[in-house]
Write a structure and sequence with these properties.
By secondary structure, the chain is of the alpha+beta class. The chain is about 25% helix and about 30% strand. A hairpin with a 3-residue loop joins strand 1 (about 1-5) and strand 2.
């Protein structure tokens, strides 16, 4: 989990997502405001990141970047390679060469894994 007092990112493995939570100004009213969805390729250490979303009313605050940074760092720490199918993640990894050694170009089996959900 990552926190900056108001916004928290949680890895929800059972849901195959990283959830972005707004805890409100007082820290007590939690609201799910975004997610980074993924699927792990069977018998592999490749994590296919296929959807990044943040509610429109939270746009322009850099929260999608915070969410993706946490998801990427956590994925790498868990020993997985990143497969950037989501357009936002694909652009993000190109802007962050420090993660290049952990990125795998999408292949047909990655897209099949998403369709199988």
């Amino acid at each position: 989990m990552k926190t900056n007092e108001r916004f928290v990112v949680e890895h929800r493995a059972a849901d195959r997502e990283y959830a972005l939570i707004d805890r409100g100004e007082s820290g007590g009213d939690a609201k799910h405001i975004g997610e980074e969805s993924y699927v792990d390729l069977a018998a592999s250490t490749e994590r296919v990141m296929y959807h990044t979303g943040v509610l429109a009313e939270y746009g322009g605050q850099g929260l999608a970047g915070v969410l993706v940074r946490f998801a990427i760092d956590d994925t790498i720490a868990a020993g997985y390679k990143i497969v950037p199918v989501c357009p936002y993640v694909a652009v993000w990894v190109k802007k962050h060469p420090e993660v290049a050694d952990h990125v795998v170009e999408p292949r047909p089996e990655h897209l099949r894994a998403i369709k199988a959900l």
